[in-house]
Amino acid sequence: MNRTPVVAQFQMHRPTNQKNKYGIFGGGLSHGFEVGVRGEYKLLINILTPFAPLTSSGKDPDLLPMRDAILKTCRKSVSSAKKAHKRMPGPDGKPAKNKAISEIAFEVMEEAYNHASAGVGMASARQVMYAARDLIIKRTGNAQPWSNSNYFTQDLLAAYINQHKLHDKWDVLYDDRGHFEEPHTGARLGIGTLAVRRYVNGWPKSLPNGQSDAVELNHLFPTVGPQSRYCFALFVEKEGFDELFRRVQLAERFDVGIFSTKGMSVTAARQLVDKLSAKNVTVLVLHDFDAYGFSILHSLKTDNDRYTYKNKPRVKGLRLEDVIELGLDRTPEQMVYTKNRGVTP
């Protein structure tokens, strides 16, 4: 209760004649909830509340007013846990205790990467996923360890690399998700691990013939990267504006590189922002002025489990005063955001 263990005695057990139902007893509760699928579960419940009535002088909390919320949470937790666990064969070949797929994936991750990267020294995230999937299928007999490949590539693999600090040891490539386009040159690349790496590695260390940045030429000057070309980049949270930007010559008029991704920024986008920031390029973020837009802005300039910035990100987004000054359009509905960022008109 409020992050402090309570002294009250609570029990949870399954009635012998109702295999798919569990009962919770204690703290004023004597209620059951359906689990859908049979299994053995342990639940740790943490209740945060400004006030809790007591059932006795021993200060046992009375949870009856919170019954519906507690039972709903228990049902949801048990359902999620069941989906995330698969049965592992024991030494005798019979099903052993349930073990989380994430735990099994961590056990085979190094073998999967070594197999996928053998002879090359690098592997795509999907190659590692396929290698790990085969190993997990052999160990569990489950032909479909996960329903969505992103769960492995974006969550499990990234978490393993971060936990074991393998960022500089494993060379894992992620597919392009979005694109970047330079002003004037029209150079275009996908926002993916390999594409960003090649682009950054192609930047010259210095200008040819010892020339300075203040150079005036009446012909095209060959450059790659921001040096002598641009000091601002525009990140757009949505794709599909390319033709509009070309029509108004946005990149050429303002000397700005333009890039976007699909939804939340990916690791390759953060790598590009990191390298651009090292070259004093400021990234301007064009985003919706709502919870999701600010989440996208935050993810682009903040360390996470998958990437830690080496240079302070030079990232700027919209502020309320910008919206007012520019007279930007607003949605007619009033939106209410819940704690879990759900949106209700």
Q: Helical segment tally? A: 10
Q: Order the strands across the largest sheet as they lie in space.
A: 9-8-11-10-12-13
Mean pLDDT: 76
Largest sheet: 6 strands, mixed
What is the CA–CA distance across the termini? 33 Å
* Helical amount: 25-40%
Count the beta strands. Answer: 15
Give me the strand/helix succession.
Answer: EEEHEEHEHHEEEHEHHEHEHEHEE
Structural class, by secondary structure, is: alpha/beta
Radius of gyration: 27 Å
Fraction in beta strands: 15-25%
Shape: globular
Question: How many separate domains?
Answer: 3
Question: Which regions have little confidence, pLDDT < 50, spanning 5+ residues?
Answer: 85-97, 341-345
Q: Would you spell out the secondary-structure blueprint of this structure?
A:
Blueprint (H helix, E strand, L loop, with lengths): L10 E3 L7 E6 L2 E6 L32 H18 E5 L5 E6 H17 L5 E2 H16 L8 H15 L8 E2 L5 E3 L6 E3 L2 H9 L30 E5 L5 H6 L2 H5 L1 E5 L6 H12 L3 E5 L4 H10 L14 E2 L3 H7 L9 E2 L5 E2 L1
Parallel strand pairs: 6-7, 10-11, 10-12, 12-13
Antiparallel strand pairs: 1-2, 2-3, 4-5, 8-9, 8-11, 14-15
Helix pairs in contact: 2-3, 3-4, 5-8
